[in-house]
Amino acid sequence: MQKIKLDITGIQYSQTQSGSYVLTLLEAGGKRKLPILIGGFEAQSIAVELEKMVPNRPLTHDLIKSFCKSFGVNVKEILIYKFLEGVFYAKIICEKEGMITEIDSRTSDAIAVGVRFNSPIYTYAEVLDEVDSSDGSEDEEDEMFEEDIEEGLTNEESELKNASKDELNHRLQEAIDNEAYELASKIRDELNRRN
């Protein structure tokens, strides 16, 4: 089976499942998407790495990276190999001294580890097709999701939009110091929008 490369295009708060996030992966050079529902901790861990934030103490996925590096293990790629009954299945493909090992993992954890190694993320065409066929109302759901994002500004996000740049920088440092990485990510997004 031919592998298809995926790119992370965003992490958004889920409007349908409280406390969850939607990690969106887009087919490289294509239009098909894999929207993956993930927990808050995993979303935070992925966002911290993507935003190149440095936490005061290592997060779990940072520990895994340190462990791998200490023992000469390199994460070569992440493979999302199956979609069954609404659940994605993934493997972390590792290499040590020319020997390849595949480790079964939750997809969110595999991606959180993979981004720390700058590893490519792949899937199979069959997985993309399965996701498309399981969602008969993709356009309608995409529209609803976009409306939720537009209308769903929280008080916190509204407050960030009205804050000065200096205040945002101060709040960003406080958030990082307090290990509030989700808030730090939102502040960083607001700062990036202004640049």
Note down, in words, how this protein is organized:
By secondary structure, the protein is α+β, with helices and mostly antiparallel strands. 47% of the residues lie in helices and 30% in strands. A hairpin with a 2-residue loop joins strand 5 and strand 6. It is built from 8 helices and 7 strands. The chain folds into 2 domains: 3-135, Bifunctional nuclease domain, CATH 3.10.690.10; 153-195. The protein has a 7-stranded mixed beta sheet with strand order 3-2-1-7-4-5-6. The longest helix is centred in the last third of the chain and has 14 residues, at 138-151. Helix 1 packs parallel to helix 3 (107-116) and helix 7 packs antiparallel against helix 8 (181-194). The chain has helices at 40-50, 60-70, 107-116, 125-134, 138-151, 155-162, 165-177, 181-194, and strands at residues 3-13, 20-27, 33-39, 74-84, 87-96, 99-106, 121-124. Residues 136-153 have low confidence and may be disordered.
